[in-house]
Amino acid sequence: MAARLVYFFGAGKAEGDARDKQLLGGKGAGLMQMTSIGLPVPPGFVVSTDCCDQYFKRNKRWPKGLDAQVREALKKLERLAGKRLGQPDEPLLVSVRSGAAVSMPGMMETILNLGLNDKSVEGLASNTNNRRFALDAYRRLIAMYAGTAMRVPRERFDSAMAEVKVKRT
C-alpha cells in the first residue's frame, strides 16, 4: 500500500490540525485547524510535504499512489461542492497553492480558477450572468499556469493585455 500523501478537509472534518505544520505546511495545517473548530472554510485537500520530498528523492518523479489519492480527494471535493472539475455547465473551480512549514509571503506560487476550459468558461459566464468576469477568470488561469508551470514570463501576458486595452480605447 502506498504511503499517505493527501489529506482532506471539509464539512467540519479534517485529516490534520495545527500541529501538522511540518507535514501539511502552515497554510494547510491552518485550514485543517479552522475546519476542525467549525469555521466556514471551503473544502479542499493538501498534498503533504512528504510528497514533495519524495518527488525530489525520486529524481522528479511523483511517488507511487499520488495519482489515486488526488483523484479520491477530488471526488470528495466534487461531492461536497455538487460540481465537477471541468464540467461545462457548472464547473468546480479550485485553486492550487504551494506552501511551507514557515511563512514566506510573496514567495510561493498559486494557480487560481483551475477547472476552467474553453467549454466551462461559457458555463461560468451563464451562471454568473457576467461574460467579462468569466473570461477574465479564464485569462488569469492561463497566465498563472503558464508562468508557474511552464515558466512563461509574465511580461508576455502583460504586454498582450496592454495591446488589447490600447485597441479598445
From TrEMBL:
One of its GO terms (molecular function) is kinase activity. Residues 22-77 form the Pyruvate phosphate dikinase AMP/ATP-binding domain. InterPro entries: ATP_grasp_subdomain_1, PPDK_AMP/ATP-bd, Pyruvate_phosphate_dikinase. This is Pyruvate phosphate dikinase AMP/ATP-binding domain-containing protein. It comes from marine sediment metagenome.
